[in-house]
Write a structure and sequence with these properties.
The chain is mainly beta. It has two helices and 24 strands. The strands form four sheets. The protein has a 15-stranded mixed sheet that branches. A four-stranded antiparallel sheet has the order 20-19-18-24, with no helix packed on it. Strands 21-22-23 form a three-stranded antiparallel sheet, with no helix packed on it. The radius of gyration is 24 Å and the shape is globular. It starts with a strand and ends in a 10-residue tail after the last strand. Residues 1-20 form the signal peptide.
C-alpha cells in the first residue's frame, strides 16, 4: 500500500470514532480515500485548531510500498520501525518533514523536490536519491550502492553502512553531496559540490508518541506555588478521586466518563496546575510526582489494528 498525505491532516486508521469525536471540526474537514492500493489523506479546506493534528496508520510489515508527503510547513510524517519490504519509495513535496526509521528494504528511492526534510535510517541494499529542491535529504544504512541526482540548492547527506558502498551520480546547480564513508565518484557541474567528506552526519531525531487510549493507575501529587493536590486512579481509566488545596490560588477537579476514559483538570490563579487526559489524546503534567504509577494502553473497541 502507498500512503499519500496532504495538507492539514487528521485520521486514525482502524479506530471507530464516537459520535462526539465526529462533531469535531477536524472530522468534518478531513477526507480519506483508497484507490488502487493507495490511501490518500487530505482536507477539504483550511482548518484551525489548537490541538496537535495527528495521523496514525497501521499496516502489515510487508505491505508498505511508498509514502508521499504533500504539505505546507508544520506537517510531519513518521514511518516507524517494523517494515520489511522488497522496495520502497519515499517522496517529499512541499515544506513538511518526512522521516523513516528502522525499516528494511532491498531497494529504496528517495525523492525530495521541496523545501522540507526527508530522512531515512534503516537497512537498505541499493538506494536512489533525487534531490532537486531546496530541502535536505538524509540517508543512512545502505550496504551496497547509492545513486544520487542533486540539483537546485539541495543538500544530500549520506551515511553508508561501510566503506565499500559505491556512491555515484551528479551534483548540479549549487547543490551539495556529503558522505561519511564509501567510494564516492559523484561528478559536479556548475556550482555543485560533490563527494565532500564529513566526519559525522546526524539525521534529525523525530520521535512518535502514542497518547490516545491510555490506562492510568497510581497516585500523583501535583503542586503549584502555594498549593497542592493529590490525585489517584484505581486503574481501568474510569475512576479518579482527588483532593485540592487553594493555598496558592489553585483548584483541582476530577471527572470520569462511562466509556472508560477519565479526565483530571485544574485551574490556578498563578497559572500553575496539572492536566491528565486520556480521552482526547493528551497526557501532560506540570509539577507532579508519581508513586506506584502504571501507564498502559487501554484496550477497547475504539482502538484496533488496520490491515
Amino acid at each position: 500500500m502507498k500512503v499519500i498525505a496532504g495538507v492539514c491532516l487528521l485520521a486514525l486508521v482502524g479506530v471507530a470514532a464516537s459520535a462526539a469525536d465526529k462533531s469535531l471540526p477536524a472530522f468534518t474537514s478531513i477526507t480519506s480515500s483508497v484507490s488502487n492500493g493507495v490511501l490518500s489523506l487530505s482536507s477539504k479546506g483550511s482548518l484551525a485548531t489548537q490541538e496537535a493534528v495527528k495521523v496514525i496508520v497501521s499496516l502489515p510489515a510487508s505491505k508498505l510500498a511508498g509514502v508521499t508527503l504533500q504539505s505546507a510547513a508544520g506537517i510531519t510524517v513518521i514511518v516507524s520501525q517494523g517494515f520489511n519490504v522488497a522496495s520502497l519509495t519515499a517522496t517529499s513535496q512541499g515544506s513538511g518533514q518526512l522521516a523513516l526509521t528502522g525499516i528494511k528494504a532491498n531497494s529504496l528511492k528517495l525523492v525530495n523536490g521541496g523545501t522540507g526534510t526527508l530522512g531515512f535510517v534503516g537497512t537498505v541494499g541499493a538506494a536512489t536519491v533525487q534531490a532537486t529542491g531546496t530541502g535536505t535529504t538524509y540517508l543512512a544504512g545502505v550496504t551496497k550502492s547509492i545513486a544520487v541526482t542533486a540539483d537546485g540548492t539541495a543538500t544530500v547527506l549520506l551515511k553508508p553502512a561501510s566503506g565499500n558502498v559505491a556512491i555515484t551520480g551528479t551534483a548540479g546547480g549549487i547543490s551539495s553531496v556529503s558522505y561519511t564513508q564509501g567510494k564516492c565518484s559523484v561528478s559536479a557541474s556548475g556550482l555543485g559540490r560533490a563527494c565532500e567528506k564529513a566526519a559525522t552526519i546526524t539525521p534529525p531525531v523525530v520521535k512518535a508518541y502514542w497518547s490516545c487510549g491510555l490506562q492510568l493507575s497510581g497516585s500523583f501529587t501535583c503542586s503549584t506555588s502555594g498549593g497542592s493536590s493529590t490525585t489517584s486512579s484505581t486503574g481501568g481509566g474510569s475512576s479518579f478521586s482527588s483532593s485540592s488545596s487553594s493555598g496558592g490560588g489553585s483548584s483541582y477537579s476530577s471527572s470520569s466518563s462511562s466509556n472508560g476514559g477519565s479526565t483530571t483538570s485544574s485551574s490556578s490563579g498563578d497559572g500553575g496546575g496539572t492536566t491528565l487526559t486520556t480521552n482526547t489524546g493528551k497526557l501532560s503534567t506540570l509539577s507532579c510526582k508519581a508513586s506506584n504509577a502504571d501507564l498502559k494502553m487501554k484496550t477497547d473497541s475504539r482502538v484496533s489494528a488496520a490491515g
